[in-house]
Protein 1
Amino acid sequence: MPSKRASSRPAASREALSAGEVWTQAVKRGVRGWLDGAEADRLYQLAAVATDPILEVGTFCGLSTAFLAAGGRQAVYAVDPCDPLLFDREQVRVAAGQDTGDLAREWWEALGLDAERIVQIRLTSTEAARSGEVPMVLGGVFVDGGHDDFNVRNDLDLWRWRVAPGGWLAMHDWGVRGEQPQPWRIRQICAEVLTGPEWDFAGATHSLAVWRRTSRPVAGRPPRVQKFEPKGEVAA
């Protein structure tokens, strides 16, 4: 399914939804995902302070996307190939053969979050970065894609360059959930990549960790990508 491009201007205004209202609707609809209430509220608060568009890497059924879109005024670019061949065992079980991209869009529309509010991009993270469909300057990036070493490092390497000074980068499944440590190396990889004076660790809410981008330039060289070229205006 082709994605819809939009400008990097703020999305259309609408009646605000609180984080509690979004959570209540998610429970009623049985929206699938691994975000808990405190983490959802943190994403909602992060979205509220974003002054540039927000990127989400790893949408699944769109639970977290709704909090990012409802919490702020900026458009949210939701990147996920929605390909069951790329799912892990638990995702396969939860999706039960359904198209997660369609499920996500139905959920967003039920909340009144239309295609101007959430730009769905059904590509892998690498494809999206090279496509020119995501703005080059982002107010926030939420990473919740593949949890293996390659994908965690790849997502960080692709997108950390685009976070504007004062913006944020959040990583899910960074720490522990309850008393159980996560089986992935996400925490170690973040410690290796998000280091130096350009990033300030802003704490963690359960397994959701957040870093703030400082005014210092990001070290190294960004990957070569296609320039973002919006194909339509989003009403302010």
Protein 2
Amino acid sequence: MTPLFVLAGGVLFLREPLRRQDVLAAAVTIVGAVLLVRAYEPSGLRVSAVGLALGIFNAISFAFLNLWAKTLPASLSPWTVLVYAFVAGTLFWLPIAPPWWVALAPQPTSVWLGVGIVTVFGTLLPYALYFAALARISATHVSVTSTLEPVVSGLVAFAVLGETLAPPQLAGGALVLAGIGLLHLRR
């Protein structure tokens, strides 16, 4: 849903042009992502009102982050943007989930190694690249392109964890790639 929210916000607030290709690309990649995560299986769908509301809030929040970051000067380093975003996030979460609850508890070295790996490769590097992309291309194109994430996750799960990908998941991956490709078609 985030790509559609970013598309709408980009058009309404950033005066980005509304292109049919962008709408189609966003819709195709969302359908592809739905197939990739097996949302078509009724046994996997346990939707509660709270979960649905939180999911929609998350999509809107991430769309806001996209649109806010797009308004920043392109000359601003992605690392500077990350610092601002993470400081704001830390101030928000500090009273809700104080870090010392985890930091003061004895943890095995493997836990701290895992935290470090996720921090660098799952947070810092991806967000820095994301913000760098926002400085160069439209928020809609960055948001749609980021739907490549479940494709990569599925391939890693297949290659590393030995998980199988069902035909609808493969079709979903193909749709995500096709949607991203639509962004680059010339009129």
Protein 3
Amino acid sequence: MPTLWIGSSSARAAARLRVVAESIGVAVHVEPLPSPDRLDADLTSLTARYDEVVWLLADRDERPEVETADAMARGVRVEILAGHDDDPRWPLQTIARLFPDEDVARRRLLRVDDVFDVSERGALVAPEVDKDLLPGPGIQSFRVRLVRPDGTEVRTHAKASIPFVSATKLVVARGFVLMMEGLTRQDVPRGTQVFRDG
């Protein structure tokens, strides 16, 4: 199992990164950034014990440039949060760079922007999913893992189908809609990440 150590003064940013990392099977440990007087010892220990060590810095001035350069020279990945911490794609993109062999992008289907209850069927989520991300062509059911914003997760089956389009207008569907079988909108809050499970 891949391992990741996150050092950050931003609990929110660390939590967002942790949720995505753990959703693909990465073991994560989060701590405050190393203190300057223990920097050398901590860097030596951390880079020996973890596959990846990441510092999440609020901006480039949060730590002295000499400390940041020393950390990067030892293999630490330094992420500057200013400007993109609120980007919903940031955690996924970061984990994909750190663990390319885990093929994160292939397994992630969508981040839920909206959800609707469909009586006796499940929870219909938006946005649509590109057909190339699905296991195969046509209408189908497959296993998915849902990772909620609070870090909890649930597994279920998702049924993919072509969305309804108007019969009187020339409309080309951009992808498929997913029905989370057996769930309700309360089970799938906005911001939930949906991954193919296997």
Protein 4
Amino acid sequence: MCDLGETNERHEQFMCSMSQTERQRLGRFRRPVDARRFVARRGLRREILARYTGFPPSELRFHDREMQRPALVRNPRTPDIRFSSASSGDLFLLAVACAMDIGVDVERLGAVGDVVACADRICTPAESAWLRSLPVEAWDDALCQLWTRKEALLKALGLGLSRPASTVDVRADRIVIAPPMADHPAPALCIIHSVDVPTGFRAHVAAITTGSEPVVQVYNGP
């Protein structure tokens, strides 16, 4: 977990490690703040993943394809490191796992706007009923919790926005995932954990496992 605003002095360093594709994407940002955050996110992603792979940040290559899970380009010497990232403003999260699909999402409270309209769009009928059973003042927080859980789960499955959020119920912390929902030969288990983030945000990480229980550790700083 990192504050992108604290990396401004490393902008040039991060720029030097960017690929040509990343530089082309950088040129499409209209607001300087969005461009700065993009450079910081990509720089931190390389720096953190370099620690897990043992390769210099500038040597890491990525599959960053639209509507697909980002991944490291692997060679015989690269460990099976998988990752997921999310950001809201200057708050940046990177989830890392070994040989386990993972997803993470973070959102700022109050960012939804019309809570009822958003709930109608992203919630299953059972989730909508649960939400409406709560006091009105709790709706924004509850919907933000549901939204980050859904995004984390769909990212872990490699589905992202290609699957409507209203088709998955995420009220449980342990969800059995069966084909064809996930690209696994047998039913797998998705485990969702909340992430301790600064006041005013909500975040969750989801891991897909067919065996051992994942252990979630949160590190602050780059």
